[in-house]
Automatic annotation (TrEMBL), chain A:
Entry-linked InterPro entries: MbnB/TglH/ChrH, Xyl_isomerase-like_sf
Protein's UniProt name: Uncharacterized protein
One Pfam match: MbnB_TglH_ChrH
Classification lineage: Bacteria, Pseudomonadati, Myxococcota, Polyangia, Nannocystales
UniProtKB/TrEMBL annotation, chain B:
Pfam families, A to Z: DUF2063, NGO1945_C
Superkingdom classification of source: Bacteria
Residues covered by the Putative DNA-binding domain: 9-111
InterPro entries: DUF2063, DUF2063_N_sf, NGO1945-like_C
Lineage: Bacteria, Pseudomonadati, Myxococcota, Polyangia, Nannocystales
Record protein name field: Uncharacterized protein
The NGO1945-like C-terminal domain, residue ranges: 165-254
Length: 300, 264
């Protein structure tokens, strides 16, 4: 089954601008503070698997009222270590209850030599590397019995000779693994700014038919004085340049789930909901342009 | 293969203790030393050394921040520079293993325990304090807990069934009375911790020596009567009516709290 057919065979996929379900406001959401305001929540199963207490209990209640998307950080899809069997079976068991339409993780390595580094570390953009990662993505997808999406990361040290090598690498993984792309347009913007390339030239290389979900986020300078490197901290509101990339994609793809990521300096829920509404206006306007284009094409 | 060597070298720059100096001195040689072919290393950008240092800082600061968040009082006593060195050493020698970020403080303490216990420059109570601070998250997030009760009443010839989160912790210091700055009194302390099955909050009970002795035996699976007898023998106290009444009250309290579920 192709990745598209795999996704279509699952329960209805939410669209619109959702939020990450963070522990700082999980209790509020559980009490209904965001009911009717968010089309879905994205969670990281790494924070729930093999864990008891209030979190899983609250998540179970939230999942009764909202669609849940699953996005992890710890599979180390590009790592050299063997895949973690216990973790994969933990994830599979967790998904049996939650039934998210897919699982996603990053095109990176995060563990090495048995050491879990808890960060998204960059991979070399070579065909050999793409082949190895794609085989692991396929294996994960089979073992989780679920379609997989891979996410493009922010990188601060390119391990290839041209920035466009990264897009080619991403495409090669997508095709060899026959998986979907969780396209993080903030990461595209961060990389384009840090490494000096045109984000639209990068996006033009990506087969948009593979894009299943989007991430948008804010970012910050590593050194406020030097301002020569921005870091994908998910610690600030989304900038207009990132809004523009979101709109560019949605105009071409139509409705998708878009996640507004916020992991640092997390504001009160009400403020985050207001930021969500602002991003949603960008999304809805792009969606309207997409519909208008479809109508024009249909009439022509 | 050069792509695998690149990953190895990158990881080494984050993990190895002497990496910062080696990367700073000659980043291309650092890559070469980890098996990256010279022509591949030569293509690394000018900023490579600086960027590797940034990655290293990001990884280590994230780990350090998590440890400081779970062990706030311990972190104050260690101070930032010492905690930074501890994390560097931890990453180089052991590192987190679990894919679950929240568990890393427990992994760190397992590694730090023997080191701190034999380090005379640290306060003697520090390890006890750290373990006590961590126990809140450990019990609060324990995958066990909330088990169904056997439905059998306590019986003298039977072991008992506790909620899966119940822990008995013994310390040489009254660590639960430590403040941000004040040292805990040097006082043998036994704490019983469990997670409330209704509100999921971690509850801590300070136990008397005899309640602790009985609890330790019950947790080890001894039948109730043997636990009571052996505890009295250990403490050199008579197994009299006063003792039995006190223990009956203690066990009834645990049952009411949902920490003790009945006979196993
Ligand atoms: Fe992202």
């Amino acid at each position: 089954m192709s990745f598209r057919a795999g996704i279509a065979a699952r329960a209805a996929v939410p669209t619109g601008v959702g939020l990450g379900l963070r522990s700082t406001f999980l209790a509020e959401v559980d009490r209904g503070a965001a009911d009717g305001r968010v089309p879905f929540w994205e969670i990281s199963p790494d924070n729930y698997v093999a864990r008891g207490g209030s979190r899983p209990a609250r998540l179970a209640r939230v999942a009764e009222r909202f669609p849940i998307l699953s996005h992890g950080l710890s599979l180390s899809l590009g790592g050299l270590d063997a895949l973690n069997d216990d973790f994969l079976s933990g994830l599979r068991g967790f998904f049996a209850g939650l039934q998210p339409p897919w699982h996603s993780d990053h095109l990176c390595f995060s563990a090495h030599d048995g050491k879990m580094l808890h960060d998204l570390l960059p991979l070399p953009w070579t065909t050999a590397s793409a082949r190895r990662v794609a085989a692991r993505v396929r294996e994960v997808s089979e073992r989780l019995e679920r379609p997989m999406l891979v996410e493009n990361i922010s990188y601060y040290l390119p391990l290839g000779s041209s920035p466009l090598d990264e897009a080619a690498f991403v495409v090669e993984v997508l095709e060899r693994a026959d998986c979907g792309l969780l396209l993080d347009v903030n990461n595209v913007f961060v990389n384009a700014t840090n490494h000096g390339f045109d984000p639209l030239a990068w996006l033009a290389q990506i087969p948009l038919g593979r894009v299943v979900q989007l991430h948008v986020a804010g970012h910050e300078f590593w050194d406020d004085e030097r301002q020569d490197l921005i870091i994908d901290t998910h610690g600030a509101p989304v900038r207009s340049e990132v809004d523009a990339l979101l709109a560019w994609v949605v105009e071409r793809t139509g409705a998708l789930p878009v996640l507004l990521e916020r992991d640092e300096n997390i504001p009160p829920l009400a403020e985050l909901l207001a930021e969500r509404d602002r991003v949603d206006a960008v999304y809805q306007a792009a969606l309207a342009r997409h519909a208008a284009q479809q109508a024009t094409q249909g009439a022509a | 293969m050069s792509e695998e060597a690149l990953i190895r070298a990158f990881a080494a720059s984050v993990i190895e203790l002497d990496a910062p100096a080696a990367v700073q001195a000659d980043v291309r040689q650092f890559f070469a030393r980890h098996g990256v072919p010279p022509e591949v290393a030569a293509r690394l950008p000018e900023t490579a050394a600086e960027r590797l240092a940034i990655y290293r800082t990001m990884v280590h600061s994230r780990l350090r921040a998590a440890v400081a968040e779970f062990l706030p009082k311990t972190a104050i006593r260690l101070g930032r520079p010492r905690l930074r060195r501890e994390i560097e050493q931890f990453v180089a020698e052991a590192a987190p293993k679990a894919p679950y970020f929240w568990r890393l403080t427990g992994e760190f303490l397992e590694w730090a325990g023997p080191r701190w216990a034999s380090d005379a420059t640290l306060p003697g109570y520090l390890l006890d304090l750290a373990r006590h601070e961590w126990s809140d998250a450990e019990v609060g997030n324990d995958p066990a807990g909330g088990e169904a009760a056997s439905g059998k009443p306590l019986a003298l010839d039977q072991p008992v069934q506790f909620d899966g989160t119940v822990r008995l912790r013994r310390y040489a210091w009254a660590v639960h009375r430590a403040t941000e700055t004040e040292a805990p009194p040097a006082e043998a302390t036994a704490l019983l911790l469990y997670r409330d099955r209704n509100d999921h909050q971690v509850k801590t009970l300070e136990l008397t020596p005899r309640a602790a002795a009985v609890t330790a035996r019950l947790l080890a699976g001894e039948p109730l009567q043997a636990a009571l007898t052996d505890a009295c023998a250990e403490l050199g106290t008579p197994l009299d009516d006063e003792f039995l009444a006190a223990m009956a009250g203690y066990l009834a309290d645990l049952a009411e709290r949902g920490a003790l579920l009945g006979a196993a």
